[in-house]
Amino acid sequence: MKSFHVKPHTSEERQEFYARLEKKNTAPLWESLARLFPNEPTPASVPVLWNYTDDIRPLLLEAGRLITAKEATRRVLVLENPGIKGSSQITESLYAGIQMILPGEIAPTHRHSASAIRFIIEGDGAYTAVDGERTTMHPGDFILTPSWTFHDHGNPSDAPCMWMDGLDFPIVNMLNAAFAEPYPKDLQAVTKKEGDALNRYGANMLPVEFQPERQSSPIFNYPYSRTREALDWLYRNGRGHECHGIKMQYVDPSTGSYPMPAIAAFMQLLPAGFHGKSYRSTDATIYSVVEGRGRTRAGEILFDWKERDIFVVPSWYRTSHEAHTEALLFSFSDRPAQKALGLWREQAPIAPA
Amino acid sequence: MKSFHVKPHTSEERQEFYARLEKKNTAPLWESLARLFPNEPTPASVPVLWNYTDDIRPLLLEAGRLITAKEATRRVLVLENPGIKGSSQITESLYAGIQMILPGEIAPTHRHSASAIRFIIEGDGAYTAVDGERTTMHPGDFILTPSWTFHDHGNPSDAPCMWMDGLDFPIVNMLNAAFAEPYPKDLQAVTKKEGDALNRYGANMLPVEFQPERQSSPIFNYPYSRTREALDWLYRNGRGHECHGIKMQYVDPSTGSYPMPAIAAFMQLLPAGFHGKSYRSTDATIYSVVEGRGRTRAGEILFDWKERDIFVVPSWYRTSHEAHTEALLFSFSDRPAQKALGLWREQAPIAPA
Amino acid sequence: MKSFHVKPHTSEERQEFYARLEKKNTAPLWESLARLFPNEPTPASVPVLWNYTDDIRPLLLEAGRLITAKEATRRVLVLENPGIKGSSQITESLYAGIQMILPGEIAPTHRHSASAIRFIIEGDGAYTAVDGERTTMHPGDFILTPSWTFHDHGNPSDAPCMWMDGLDFPIVNMLNAAFAEPYPKDLQAVTKKEGDALNRYGANMLPVEFQPERQSSPIFNYPYSRTREALDWLYRNGRGHECHGIKMQYVDPSTGSYPMPAIAAFMQLLPAGFHGKSYRSTDATIYSVVEGRGRTRAGEILFDWKERDIFVVPSWYRTSHEAHTEALLFSFSDRPAQKALGLWREQAPIAPA
Amino acid sequence: MKSFHVKPHTSEERQEFYARLEKKNTAPLWESLARLFPNEPTPASVPVLWNYTDDIRPLLLEAGRLITAKEATRRVLVLENPGIKGSSQITESLYAGIQMILPGEIAPTHRHSASAIRFIIEGDGAYTAVDGERTTMHPGDFILTPSWTFHDHGNPSDAPCMWMDGLDFPIVNMLNAAFAEPYPKDLQAVTKKEGDALNRYGANMLPVEFQPERQSSPIFNYPYSRTREALDWLYRNGRGHECHGIKMQYVDPSTGSYPMPAIAAFMQLLPAGFHGKSYRSTDATIYSVVEGRGRTRAGEILFDWKERDIFVVPSWYRTSHEAHTEALLFSFSDRPAQKALGLWREQAPIAPA
């Protein structure tokens, strides 16, 4: 098959020329062209699984003894993809970490351009506050802290709370559009009653003549109970997808679109015994196992996962899922950013060669 | 002023813990938090000016003697920002290079996910072909080769043709959504007459029931004459902007929006004697001087520029322009990508402290 | 004040000319100009109140003895505005009627271009079916039968069911875009389980990669309980509008916009003792009293309304509401059609002269 | 075939009931259902042709002797469809008239909610002014006066100017959203140089960060020369449509969509000898013959038309065009209003039964 580019031969004459190019802040494109224009996505990030119960959780508790939430600002263990070591990222475009807040602690109020999602793994009494409203977080709840909204966390309960953070700061920072500022005080005031956003915007109603103030969902807690119920219904009343099982996306009720401009989030149910067909898509995806046990193949890698595990499948990896028991997987990706730029592709299933 | 994050003190105990974190593909967020969440954009890229006449042009002609367009696939001198050496990029999110095609040469047909713009500096007889139509390129013309369209260049004239390329491959590659393929033959067939797109889509008319096939403009040559005329009109019939002079944006006539999903392009006229006020915006901008002489201040850097020079101003640099003679500046940036993600900010002028 | 147009004087010469104009299918515009271009909306429709309990209900039951639902196709008493007698319409652009279906009856399946809403007044066991799914209707439920979807009604319960229909056929017919067809059989098959749409689309989730098939909401029953709850919340946690009280709009969860292209629907709560300020808007509005007692002033007309009454306020009438007890008003209007055409105006409150 | 509705039998009992219904401002729907829900569009308007040269022009000149433009406010002969006599309309949803302004006259400045188009038939020196800019009108030019913009006409030349007006006031008035007001003086001030809008917005450029102020095109004169050129190009470089020949739509350059919210406008070229296939669409269309001679079949009616004739084809009529010589037809319809409400249908060509 014809090649996109074959790197030209080199010579002393050319090398000397290249050295003079460098002095003028230039470079020969033909020496890099193949690398800059891959035939198909070639991520440096790799598939990784993090064993929450055996590895992450003990390390988090240990971090809890070593540093306070306040001193850390955010006590988080970054899930760093070994394929892009030193980046503090889970893929080239997204960040994920596991945050813990102990009883009595607070993570002080601040805001930043990056959008963030939180997916709750453990704990029932901690809260996230966004723009004056607190929401109590329970396992399986999907929480948002939209770009440039003041947010903080606290834990008035008597047990630790752990969740997965997902942020788009790699994209924001690459565009050099990042701002951040702390709140003048440790904690913003509570100005709205808990449940306000979900009641005000989440009942298939909106306040009359509602004008969104931000490019993100006006609701910031999607409770697991509501999501689980919807998935159960689809499971019992319809056929799932041959690759994805029963899969749904979280939605901004004021637009019907993704909840944040660069981050999409999904919940999927794989029935017991599910053997999904292979698929691939350009949006690398980070999974958090909510319920059940199963196995995912990502390229040559095979992950056996169980409840609370987290794993990442990079862009365009040949992927398929199996579920030994009924399983629920939360996931998120940068699909909205790719769609906004006309770049997203998916083959589900992958057509035979 | 209260700080977003103060890096915690370190200790042997903590360092030992961090080593164990690394083994499990994790890392302590609090060690990187300040770096990942800057208070405001802190690009590593720096303001740079390339002297086309004295530096780039001679080097290009030398490259013309050292390698053929066909062997190079594209004979381009990358404008590499010394602040991000080795990246082959002019800013963290954009690429720019100067391409030359000699009389009789072709640059073979291919396509890729990245969108590209071409801004013509020299030459009157070379062409760019997109999806079966060729367009002859003249200085000041703004040419597009949209994502995934087959394109090539040729020069049937007897003089070299040089132009500035701008591509969004840094964004595409970071999202790991990049595909590329060569055309089966060196050159795609010519299936449409020259001028087709501009006549068909550029006269404030569209074919009845037109459905865009792509997320980019259906016209791919914006001739300088038409643009210059519009700018002249605005100059003689209205007040310019106190920072930007008379500035216009190229538009996709089938949407009224930017010509490509991630790249905006502009042409601005600075009247002789123009002393613009300072401004800053989150979209780093690459300028090509079409006509005239002037000076741009970017942060602490002062550029004296003349015709055909190229310079880059990174994100959020305090910028102001002066024109000694009437001057025309072409420029491009990633403004549409920033707006799609709700990130774009501009202060024009910058309010007094 | 200067006049838009003063009708010219007439003369025998002119009249003779006008007669010749008529023979050529022409007419003198200046004879009609003032009528065709009113200074402000001048509806022929007038404010009307229908006393459901004392007038409509008995007449409906009598109709129930005089004709079957099947013979009538739809057993409906049209609410005809006396200002536009003979039109079968409640305003110039909208239709409303009260439909009754008796135990054991069906209203056969058909479809038409006009969109329809149903607001349930009485009865707990009747159903509406849309595209293979039945939904049981309860008082206060807001039901949609979108344009060109097959729909029918049935009543397997042992009590009559009455509801208000609202349709946009005046708009559809004026545009001469109306199609209609019966289903081959009396009743379409039931292919989905009851509750499917609300579970599938109404939980702030959507099936992954959901593509709407129609320009209307994918959910077709907005239960009163859910709406009442949202309104209660807003009532207890915020200030209502000085004219509208606590007012919310029903929303298409797949767009965040109105549930149908030409019809908006609202529910508003007026606290006991509410004395609203005067307002006016270009969208004539039809109200159905769900709970409570109050009074509405529309121009010079004063309506004392109680539960189950229906009343209409034409376009641009100076309107204000009072509530003697806590009151809930359902309403609908053509606001989306007006907004789509750039025509909607509201003054709430009306600024002092 | 099964019927949508069969009108029930009547009886004395039922008639007496209907009389009591009327007293309570109600009516039996089943007596009107079939009329209100036609199987397919059944316009009362009929196909009509107006012979401009032999009929309209002489009558206009006579009107010119009988009344001044100022006294008439607008000296226009309404093209009134005999199928809807007394409506002052050409179709149920649109208005058309032929306006004449004599040398030295003015048609005073005013504004109204209705949008208007003007298609110039005769004359070269008259102008239309919109929001402070005058544009000189030439035959074949397509002029807009958007909703609520102050507009007026004048004729400083020495020959009369005649043009076809098209307005959407039937839609605006039916929605009862109509406002109108005269300008305080006879003529608004000229604040922009002629050609400003077209230069500023029509060159595939827009002023940087342009925000549309209205829901209509920012350009208000689409010169015939530019449109003719585009059509010629498409004619010589591609195949036309088997029903429509070479047909293009006028476009708002700031959106890529129709130039006004409720009115679409088109120009089509039928090559000499063109024999188009039959088609039908729900948007009734008004044609003005710019060049050439031909014949249009609309249902059972056959029109032989020549230059300057105007004819109307109502909704859903089986239509086909023939051209004896090369012919250019301007046309307009309410297609955008129909599309906004999800109602537009076209069969082109009509599939065999």
Structure description:
The structure is a homotetramer of 353-residue chains. Helices cover 19% and strands 31% of the residues of chain A. In chain A, the strands form five sheets. Chain A has a six-stranded antiparallel sheet with strand order 2-21-18-23-16-15. In chain A, strands 3-4-11-6-9-14 form a six-stranded antiparallel sheet. Chain A starts with 11 loop residues before the first helix and ends in a 6-residue tail after the last strand. The mean pLDDT of chain A is 96. Chain A is of the alpha+beta class and 353 residues long. Chains A and B meet through helix 1, strand 1, helix 3, strand 3 and strand 4 of A and helix 1, strand 1, helix 3, strand 3 and strand 4 of B.
Question: Can you summarize this structure?
Answer:
The structure is a homotetramer of 353-residue chains. By secondary structure, chain A is of the alpha+beta class.
Give the proportion of residues in helices of chain A.
10-25%
Give the overall shape of chain A.
Answer: globular
Structural class of chain A: alpha+beta
**How many strand segments of chain A?**
24
Strand order of the largest sheet of chain A: 2-21-18-23-16-15
- Tell me what portion of residues of chain A adopts beta-strand conformation: 25-35%
Work out the helix count of chain A.
8
Mind telling me the C-alpha Rg of chain A? 22 Å
In terms of per-residue confidence, which ranges of chain A show pLDDT below 50 for 5 or more consecutive residues?
none
User: What's the oligomerization state?
Assistant: homotetramer
